[in-house]
Design a protein that fits this description.
- The complex is a heterodimer of chains A (about 140) and B (about 120).
- Chain A has 3 helices and 7 strands.
- Chain A is an alpha+beta fold and about 140 residues long.
- Chain A has one domain.
- The longest helix of chain B has about 35 residues.
- The radius of gyration of chain B is 22 Å and the shape is rod-shaped.
- The chains are: A alpha+beta (about 140), B mainly alpha (about 120).
């Protein structure tokens, strides 16, 4: 397939390379119908996994900050029943069972919180502005 | 970034004069040009379908089930906490990235299989 949306993909990769270290593009595809980017990189002493997908059904994303294989924090909008229940309640969630509800996974995926939709720039801003405050909530964990 | 919409448009394509003259030796240049485009599309789409299948197989091997089974378990509509998801989170703490990628290629495969059927039926 021809790469029609390569410009957007290129900008995204440039952004990653300007902020993160050891950027490795795991997978990329840019056609008129599908934009897909999977990348792994490093931020301070953490591993970062970025997935950004745009297709006919809309936008899907997941952004993880990892220590080894443990999730330190993760943001995604994949279809998740727990997030749907959290947003709409146990009575009403079934009406929205296809909805991609943006949410956050806390350290070791112990908790889930609802969030606004997150973009790569918003994730970067979160790391810059909130990561240290967030890590302070886990004083017993060695990061 | 936003998903782009496909539009169906009729387009006029100029055939180079030297090709036009040669095509006339084999039949109607317009029909032959359309046949050439169809052949090109079939080749391209088949290649892409194979790429989608390979991506899907990779995920099937990793998670030991089809996308439909995986999707069904992830989005189970029963009222209890699905044990499958809890186990999945332990074994694959970032499973959502695979789930989304798998889903995207699954949709792409369905879409391009349909497009192929339409071309072959036309």
């Amino acid at each position: 397939m021809e790469r029609r949306d390569e410009k957007n993909l290129g900008k995204l990769i440039e952004l990653l390379e300007s902020i993160f270290e050891e950027v490795r593009i795991v997978q990329q595809r840019a056609t008129e119908a599908l934009l897909l980017l999977r990348a792994e990189c490093r931020y301070r002493k953490f591993r970062v996994k970025i997935t950004e997908i745009v297709d006919g059904q809309g936008r899907n994303y997941s952004f993880y900050l990892l220590r080894g294989d443990t999730v330190v924090v993760g943001f995604d909008n994949s279809e998740d029943r727990r997030a749907q229940i959290m947003k709409y309640g146990k009575r009403n969630w079934k009406k929205y069972f296809r909805e991609r509800v943006p949410h956050q996974h806390t350290y070791d995926r112990k908790e889930m919180r609802l969030t606004e939709e997150m973009s790569v720039p918003a994730f970067i801003a979160w790391l810059r502005d909130h990561l240290d405050i967030y890590l302070a909530d886990y004083p017993t964990v060695s990061f | 970034m936003h998903a782009q919409l496909h539009r169906t448009e009729e387009a006029t394509v100029a055939i180079k004069p030297q090709y036009h003259n040669l095509l006339r030796d084999f039949g109607n240049p317009v029909e032959l040009a359309n046949y050439a485009i169809e052949s090109y599309l079939v080749t391209k789409i088949l290649k892409y379908i194979e790429e989608c299948k390979a991506e899907i197989k990779k995920h099937e091997a990793k998670y030991g089930c089809s996308y439909e089974e995986f999707y069904g378990k992830i989005t189970s509509r029963n009222g209890t906490e699905p044990a499958f998801v809890l186990q999945l989170e332990k074994e694959h703490p970032t499973y959502e990235d695979d789930f989304m990628t798998w889903g995207a290629f699954h949709r792409e495969l369905e879409k391009w299989n349909d497009e192929m059927k339409k071309i072959l039926a036309s």
